[in-house]
Structures are given as structure tokens and as C-alpha cells.
Specification:
Structural class: alpha/beta
Helix content: 40-55%
Oligomer: single chain
Bound molecules: pyridoxal-5'-phosphate
Distance between the termini: 26 Å
Number of helices: 15
Shape: globular
Length: about 475
């Protein structure tokens, strides 16, 4: 067993324990052997054993009882698998997520996993030219931390753009971060304290789960569909039944469903959260990538209370994720956010911020976005057509109005984690839907990323993927 790659080792142990439960070797209510016993008996690292147990928790087969151990749940508990987790639940240890992030960066795989744009459609050469010019004329950018809240020129450029989308702020309200992820982590840190409850959309952007675990928060999942976005009736009843401290939501082009909230839904979402006192962490990282004629407006543009919405975004999905330049905006909480930024990272790389500031200031960004939206609309349409052509007719695929991911629902019973491994062996990276929720309710779904120009190789890859699905 120990000769297997680590990623498969924990799955092998999880499957083995699962089979023992199915055979009745462990029955409902039984305690499983402890992590240490499994480690000693099977000669598997403690971390790998813990990952296997977290996987079984995620499948709804066992539960962890603090200071006691892991217990087998009744078989019918897996009925929960089809629903979102309605009770506030701690997030289990990250499982396949780390492995997926590594696979997304593996240049040997056909890239349909990570949401990363091809260098062919982002202006890497222009950004590099600006970088060289800055380094030649102001080499001291490397010798300073820069202001903790961020480079003043970049904050000005971002504030100008925000005003054009209806968010009337000043540069002082902007705090520069290391990408949108860091923006959300700072916002969560300011809006909540450990032990608080956060509502997330289900399915969610997978990396939100380990982030909330890191912040020591409890999570409630609320259904989200590609047509309607977050289910506001469900959110309302959750908020009436228990305290909710924050809601993480993408109102404009959600990942992975692609949903855009209607204006009425945005107003209702703001009203529900205002009534229960929850802050909104708005993830608008795909907001600029609409295929239609009008940018979907952010929640931050219509919120009336100054600190109700923490608006988070970055340049990772429009320019270059490698720059790690993002931002968080709150009219009422920018001092707290700047303090949190200082505590987490002191400051952001000055060179990277200046590159983005110059690119924005010169008007090149707007021209680039126009080309990018056009390219992405075509790439998404081609990938969608290939899915429709190669996958069985029972597969359902979203038709997003922006962004660059497709969410594909396969036959119930499909194991997306196993499919992810088979695809990887066939040289293709995808995202298994299983990682997009706390329960295995999306275990039969996959996410296909369309960040690269469509070629024969992608068409052939989609055919192979359909063959191993
Ligand atoms: C919905 C969503 N939010 C946030 C991020 C993270 O963005 P960044 O790379 O700027 O941290 C991603 C990246 O995949 C994403 O898809």
C-alpha cells in the first residue's frame, strides 16, 4: 500500500474502511480504530490517515466526536448527501483540494481544471514591459515595503473603476491584498470571530472551505442554481432559525454555477442580511467577464449601510494571477481591514501594484477586457458544444453568461473524485464537483475550465474525458 502515491493512499484507505462498513465489520454507532491505531496497523502516515477519515466524514459515512473518536453513522445519514448542510458545521480537513491545486499547475496536463487564463489571451508581454521600465527607472521599489493599505496610485485607479460600476468610494476605502482570496480572508477576519456561523453558496468556489476552516468558523450551505443563484427562501429560513454572522456570495457570475443574481434578488439578499445583522462578503472576481452588453452590478453598489458589504476582487481572472494583486473595499471598515492587512502580510509587493496601476491608468485595461470577454465567450461556447457532442445525453451542462467555467452534472452515482484521477492519468485536469460542498451532494458533477483558446487538442481531450466518465 505504501508504494502508492500519497494522493491515492488516503482514498484507498477511505475506500477500504468504507467497504468494511458496508460489509458490517463496523456497524452504526461503532467507533472506528483511532488515527494512531490505523497509522500503526497499516504503516500509513498520521496525516494520510486523517485525510482518509475526513473523506469518510465528507461522504457522510462517519462523524468525529470531539475527544472521543470517529463513529459510524446510520446508513440513512447518507440521504443528507443530496441536500446542503443545514446545520452549522465545522469544515473537515482539506482533502483532495491540495492535490487539485498542484494538478492545475501541472503543465503536462490538458488544462481544464484550474481557473487560469492562457498566456495567449492575457497581456503578459505588455505587463512585463511595464515591469522592466519601472525597475529601470525606480529600482527602489524592491527596497521598500510600501504603505500597508497599498500603493496610492493603484488605490486611485481602483476607486475610479468602482465609481463607474456604481460604488461611490474614495481611494482611502480600498485596501490592496494578495489576490481575492486574501481579500476574502481579511474581510472574514474583520466581519466574524472564531465560532461564528457563515453561510456559503452550494456549490461553492472550493477554496472557500479551507479558508473558513482556517478562520475557525462554522458553515451552513444554502443551495445555489445556475438559473437563480443563491436560494433566498432557504437563506431567509436559515437566518430566522439561528444566528448568521456573514454570507459569502458572488452576485455576478458565480463559480462554479455561472449564476448572476437579478436586481430584485440582490435587493432581497441585502434586506435579509440587514435584518439578521449578517455582513456580506461579496466575491466579484468574475464580475468584469460578462458576455452581454452590460456589466452585472455588484451588491456593494446598492447596499445602503456603509459596512454591510465587504467587496472583494482581484486582477487574477482578468490580467495575471501571478501578480497576486487584489483588493477589499468597505466604506465603514477600511481601518479595520488595513489593520488586518498589516497583521497578515504587512504590505503587498510594490512592483506588482505599480505594474497594474500603470496598465489601468493608460487605458489599456479597458481595451484588453473587451478582447478578453469576446475570447472567453467563444472558448466557453466551443467547450460547451464539445461536451454536448461527446458526453451522454443525460449529462447537463450550464450555459453561463460570463466567466470561464462550465458546471457539468453527470449520471447520479458518478464518482467525480475517481473520474478526476482517471482523467489525470489520461493527461487531463478537471475539478471534481465533490470538493465544492461539505457533503457529497455534487460528487457526480465536474467543473470544466475554459481559460485557453479552443484547439483540436481540447476537443480530443473532451472526447477522452467523456470516454473515462
Ligand atoms: C470565485 C473565486 N474567488 C476567488 C478566487 C481567488 O482569486 P485570487 O487568485 O485573486 O486569490 C478564485 C480563483 O479561482 C475564484 O474562482
Amino acid at each position: 500500500m505504501s508504494a502508492q502515491p500519497v494522493a491515492r493512499l488516503y482514498l484507498a484507505l477511505a475506500n477500504d474502511l468504507s467497504a468494511m462498513i458496508a460489509r458490517g465489520a463496523y456497524r452504526e454507532g461503532d467507533r472506528l480504530p483511532s488515527v494512531r491505531m490505523l497509522h500503526e496497523e497499516r504503516g500509513i502516515a498520521i496525516g494520510t490517515v486523517s485525510q482518509a477519515l475526513a473523506e469518510l466524514e465528507r461522504r457522510g459515512a462517519i462523524e468525529a466526536r470531539p475527544r472521543s473518536g470517529y463513529y459510524v453513522l446510520p446508513v440513512h445519514a447518507t440521504a443528507r448527501d443530496t441536500r446542503a448542510s443545514e446545520r452549522a458545521t465545522p469544515v473537515p480537513l482539506p482533502h483532495v483540494t491540495d492535490d487539485f491545486v498542484m494538478a492545475s499547475a501541472d503543465a503536462a496536463l490538458l488544462p481544464m481544471g484550474g481557473t487560469v487564463l492562457s498566456p495567449a489571451i492575457v497581456p503578459v508581454a505588455a505587463l512585463a514591459r511595464i515591469g522592466r521600465r519601472i525597475l529601470a527607472s525606480q529600482p527602489d521599489v524592491l527596497a521598500t515595503y510600501g504603505p500597508p493599505a497599498g500603493d496610492p496610485a493603484l488605490r486611485r485607479e481602483i476607486a475610479k473603476r468602482m465609481v463607474t460600476i456604481g460604488v461611490g468610494i474614495s481611494p482611502d476605502d480600498v485596501v490592496i491584498t494578495s489576490g481575492c482570496m486574501n481579500a476574502m480572508r481579511l474581510a472574514i477576519g474583520v466581519a466574524t470571530k472564531p465560532g461564528d456561523t457563515v453561510v456559503i453558496e452550494s456549490p461553492t468556489f472550493f477554496a472557500v472551505l479551507p479558508m473558513l476552516r482556517d478562520a475557525g468558523l462554522l458553515v451552513i450551505e444554502v443551495d445555489a442554481t445556475s438559473e437563480q443563484g443563491i436560494d433566498l427562501d432557504a437563506l431567509e429560513s436559515v437566518a430566522e432559525a439561528q444566528p448568521v454572522h456573514a454570507v459569502i456570495v458572488s452576485a455576478s457570475i458565480q463559480n462554479p454555477t455561472g449564476a448572476v443574481l437579478s436586481d430584485a434578488a440582490k435587493h432581497r439578499l441585502l434586506a435579509i442580511t440587514r435584518r439578521c445583522g449578517a455582513r456580506i462578503i461579496e466575491d466579484d472576481v468574475y464580475g468584469e467577464l460578462y458576455f452581454g452588453t452590460q456589466r452585472p452590478g455588484p451588491l456593494a453598489a446598492i447596499a445602503t449601510a456603509v459596512d454591510q458589504v465587504f467587496y472583494c476582487s482581484s486582477f487574477s481572472k482578468t490580467l495575471a494571477p501571478g501578480l497576486r494583486v487584489g483588493y477589499v473595499i468597505s466604506r465603514g471598515a477600511h481601518h479595520a481591514l488595513a489593520r488586518a492587512k498589516l497583521a497578515h502580510t504587512i504590505a503587498s509587493p510594490v512592483l506588482n501594484q505599480r505594474i497594474v496601476a500603470e496598465f489601468l491608468g493608460g487605458g489599456a485595461y479597458e481595451r484588453h477586457l473587451r478582447r478578453l470577454r469576446h475570447a472567453l465567450a467563444q472558448q466557453v461556447a466551443s467547450a460547451r458544444a464539445a461536451i454536448v457532442q461527446h458526453f451522454p445525453r443525460t449529462a447537463r451542462v450550464t450555459a453561463p453568461v460570463g466567466g470561464f467555467v462550465l458546471w457539468v452534472e453527470l449520471e447520479p452515482g458518478t464518482d467525480s473524485l475517481a473520474l478526476y484521477q482517471r482523467a489525470r492519468q489520461a493527461g487531463i485536469s478537471i475539478l471534481p464537483g465533490a470538493v465544492c460542498a461539505l457533503t457529497p451532494r455534487f460528487a457526480h458533477c465536474i467543473r470544466i475550465s475554459c481559460g485557453h483558446p479552443w484547439t483540436q487538442a481540447f476537443d480530443a481531450g473532451m472526447r477522452v474525458l467523456a470516454g473515462v466518465a
